[in-house]
């Protein structure tokens, strides 16, 4: 452990030794500048990139020569490039199952299709639609596949989104599914944060960068237009437009058997949007739903949505439905109750097949899948699909012409299995993975810690059965945006750090997944409890879990690493600044750290619904209490963090990570820093990049967390 300015940890001393001249050149903040590191917000600025490359070089020099680094990296690459993995369906349409596949031979991936019958029988017959790596090589681009939107009901044409480098901004190009080729003279949109939907065989709803004033403060489309084939984009007609302070405006088309139902969504903030149905004559007909409801799908002309707050007798978290034809005809549609979760449950996602609404939910953070049907009297009922308990369930895809769905089930020690599920029938395994590691001496436990305000906070603990504590603990969490953290197979835990968690447990340590407030583990109320001025609740939950581990003899103060990415990176950097006594390490991925400027950086304005507006004094009063960049102080004994991000992240600005590192450097505090040049918000494009990060994280943890108990 680090013990003070004159008593560094082994890793800190090593880092300072290789830092050399770069550390000597660190500059103290300039008194005349409010922020001395604004230059690091210049993503490709010469000075910023020189700083990043120096930090990268320094970190690699320190960590790559550590014991077992090469072994960690090569094993991680084998895991991540293994051809024995679930070929989860991204979509089922037009008699085909679509899948995006990456392996060692195709690190950029293959977009491919198989007839649904062959896939459902466990014997897929794959046809490659796009070899992304080959396409990029031919066109001189670093293409990354970002999905496709296909024209129903035949699904023979699609708009394919490609990102040059992995960011959220994409190029949209029309693609012929039969010929597996882009269409010469077809619809094409230049690089932008675009949203497109088919308005018919020869028309698109388009939200994109139409020029000056057409984007919101969050960097997304403000205007949606109808673009007809054979006409220039400039002549497209306006469907609707929002205001500059909106998050985004987009049109989406729901497919319901042989019909389509277009809707217009104006995002007022991250959690509130004005929903209107686009009538056949172009009229916009407002939905009766409250602005914070999440629309999910359409079945038999009924819009299916999940409520985020109590509404007209329906409690928050409920799934409801209403008739679109009735609404368009000028009637007031009846609001039907599809499903109401109990106090232990939370609806995660909803989808529909031919006549069934599928509800994926959590029950004390364990996955469940329900199949619900509507009776003639408007009552909905159904049953749970018989899947493994204490697991994570992924609802991968549903079929539109049958009531077949595909779901993947996995646990921390249980490899994924893909099932074909049909209501009332026993699930059929389509593909099961063999075990990738020996879990015979490992165990997963679920515990509940008590937070500062008395709230019970669940967490998963993984360790060897022969564990004799206290041992170092590696704790991952997120706590935001109503996104639940559920247990996945250990080689994939935590998100995008891959096998580091497995290595940690194999070597006799403890791995923890904490389900803190702000996430979606218990529905809207669990999320709301950490919104805006209540953000500290999430951090208090985190500390409660860490202290519960100490109380139970699993670990000790100073031997715990906190880990998180994106909003979780904010959480990890807050934990480092607020509780340096509790944590001995911090893995800070793609983070927000400068909460004074987050709303002015890339997509940051879209998250003010989550955090508040730092430009409003009343909001800054509570944000300033935890904003990591502003709360770093000279002379404090912080743990040495490992900070990672991507230059091409156009969602969370890399300046957050850079400036946090620079502030540490101002105070002569050590840190590890690695910035992938490609990768977007995922901080990696190819398996080799994720394998490198897994090895870096593991060797970092080995250096920072002492293996022997504190004296």
From TrEMBL:
<dbReference type="InterPro" id="IPR051167">
    <property type="entry name" value="Prolyl_oligopep/macrocyclase"/>
</dbReference>
<dbReference type="InterPro" id="IPR002470">
    <property type="entry name" value="Peptidase_S9A"/>
</dbReference>
<dbReference type="Pfam" id="PF02897">
    <property type="entry name" value="Peptidase_S9_N"/>
</dbReference>
<feature type="domain" description="Peptidase S9A N-terminal">
    <location>
        <begin position="23"/>
        <end position="422"/>
    </location>
</feature>
<dbReference type="InterPro" id="IPR001375">
    <property type="entry name" value="Peptidase_S9_cat"/>
</dbReference>
<keyword id="KW-0645">Protease</keyword>
<keyword id="KW-0378">Hydrolase</keyword>
<feature type="domain" description="Peptidase S9 prolyl oligopeptidase catalytic">
    <location>
        <begin position="503"/>
        <end position="684"/>
    </location>
</feature>
<feature type="signal peptide">
    <location>
        <begin position="1"/>
        <end position="24"/>
    </location>
</feature>
<dbReference type="Pfam" id="PF00326">
    <property type="entry name" value="Peptidase_S9"/>
</dbReference>
<keyword id="KW-0720">Serine protease</keyword>
<keyword id="KW-0732">Signal</keyword>
<protein>
    <submittedName>
        <fullName>Prolyl oligopeptidase family serine peptidase</fullName>
    </submittedName>
</protein>
<dbReference type="InterPro" id="IPR023302">
    <property type="entry name" value="Pept_S9A_N"/>
</dbReference>
<dbReference type="InterPro" id="IPR029058">
    <property type="entry name" value="AB_hydrolase_fold"/>
</dbReference>
